Amino acid sequence: MTNDEITEVIQKVHELLTKKKLTISVAESCTGGLISHFLTALPGSSAFFDAGIVTYSIESKKSILGVSSGTISNYGVVSEETAREMAEKVRILTRTDYSISATGNLGPDALEGKERGLIYIAVSREGQTFSRELRLTGDREANKEEAALQALMFLVEMIGDDRKDI
């Protein structure tokens, strides 16, 4: 993506969250804080952005977010189940309207037997959590950026589908 396309995604997120008066929090692993960085790249993010937590290790996912040991041992950190639980736990922890999470393998090697570029993102709101699998083919940095942007675009899609506001 070009810088203009990245800015366009960020602007859309800002407009949507501000217009609907929604708050957001983020739990990141493989994206290493990039989703939070994108959310705060433009002025005005303090109106909706509550917290971003980078839980890179298994232990921090369990001790900070409260992801269950069972989820990690049964499915691994690179899993839809872990992404969903990360999103749910950070939303509850911060009491935000929405949350985003990302976990996966940026590469270069396999992790838990899962190939490079396999990323899971999730968006959570009260009573509902949505997840998506990404299979990215770039290098480590390209995959990190693409995963962060896909998570923000997924958020826009899910807020757009939020029929509670209509």
Question: How much of the sequence is in beta strands?
Answer: 15-25%
> How is the main sheet built?
5 strands, mixed
Instruction: Measure the end-to-end span.
Output: 33 Å
What is the CA-based Rg, rounded? 15 Å
Q: Under the CATH scheme, which class?
A: Alpha Beta
Topology:
Blueprint: H1 3-19, E1 24-28, H2 34-39, E2 49-54, H3 58-65, H4 69-75, H5 80-94, E3 98-104, E4 118-125, E5 128-135, H6 140-160
Parallel strand pairs: 1-2, 1-3
Antiparallel strand pairs: 3-4, 4-5
Helix pairs in contact: 1-6
Question: What would you say this structure looks like, in words?
Answer:
Helices cover 45% and strands 20% of the residues. It contains 6 helices and 5 strands. A 5-stranded mixed sheet has the order 2-1-3-4-5, with helices on both faces. Strand 1, helix 2 and strand 2 form a beta-alpha-beta unit. Helix 1 packs parallel to helix 6 (140-160). It is globular and about 40 Å long.
Short description:
The protein is α/β, with parallel strands linked by helices and 166 residues long.
Quick tags:
166 residues, alpha/beta, Maf protein, five-stranded mixed β-sheet, 6 helices, 5 strands, globular
